[in-house]
Amino acid sequence: MVIGPGLITAFADNDAGGVATYSVAASKYGYKILTVLIPITVVLAITQEIGARIAIVTGKGLGDLIRERFGIKISLFVFLVTFVVNFGVILQDLSGLKGSLQLFQLDYRIFLPLVLLGLFFVVIKSNYSKIERFFLFLILFYMTYFFSAVMAKPDWNLALKSIIIPPKKVNFDYLYTSIAVLGTTVTIWGQFFINSVVKDKKLTIDNLKYEKWEVYFSSILSDVATWFIMLAVIGTIYKNNVVIQGAEEAALAIKPFAGELAGILFGVGLFVAGFLGCAIVPLATAYAFSEFFGYSGSLDSDFKKSRLFYSLFIIQIIIGFVIVFQQSFSLFKFTLIADFLNGISLPLIFYFLYSLANNEHIMGKFKNTKMQNILLVGSGIIISLGSVLGIVGKLLNF
Questions:
Q1: Are 120 and 275 within 8 A, CB to CB?
Q2: Closest C-alpha among 277, 273, 272, 253 to residue 263
Q3: Regarding the domain delimited by 5-396, which CATH topology (the fold level of the hierarchy) does it fall under?
Q4: N or C: which end of the chain has fewer CB within 10 A?
């Protein structure tokens, strides 16, 4: 009844850009970077649950509520920030698709357009229920990272300890990288997407307590997948001091140390992650646009009724495709920058989540608890401080 919104949103955070960021972070800091996973899982679970609860209680999207409560000028500003950050993610995902095709020696000039045409067909011609089942099917392919990690033979004892025990020393670059990992796991687009798909799935108050646990379970399961992605890299690339700049390089670099199959499985996971991201991130932007500016936008509506919704979805991908299609283009080398930008933008969205979820007029008895507020506000403060320190460190080259 409720499975879908939390699971799809959480795993789509592990898109091609996410795989790239996790790979680069793990190759730089090894087991030390695993310490960030539990705090990030808590932030992901809390923020996604708030977004889902707001949608179920109000029956409205996040964009709708921001427009109604804060006005059109604020809505325009938030949408522009969302669009810019999301488009950077779309470029990452398209680049991930391109890179994964090249890994399997497929000519991206032929196959990338075909893959995107298939994506357009699935999204435009199907309804929400069919698209949800298709996305859930794709999530099964994230098991490839589990097998890649097992073949990489990391130190499992150290891998478990590192989740709980933080490193004794951290530097500014570690903070910068941690914010980037946060920014690719807890995303601006994810806050809008889960809110909108809960509305599209037509969940009601009766479903609220079940949806809460679906979100919590999905957040944990998604970050377990992140753990395996990082371990696949740590057990091979980090262990052998190999420098990489992205996920496609990680897939190639894993092969000499863990075997051909491990590299292939990592590459398959990258393709699925890129495809899922290319579908969901532009949909999140299209949902946000429709809600912010009062247009019809739903996967249960046909193209004629939600023309602007589907057109914006297609336009984002086409513009991104034109950029990524350039032979020399690879955004993965800038992946930490793109995800850091998302990370430092999160407190802005957290402010709106806090304001709406504590508004008794619209939430009634379902408003935030004291503990939820402490976790949400605390997360925003820590992210802001970490972002400032990360930027200062980069500027001073620490």
A1: no
A2: 253
A3: Amino acid/polyamine transporter I (1.20.1740)
A4: N
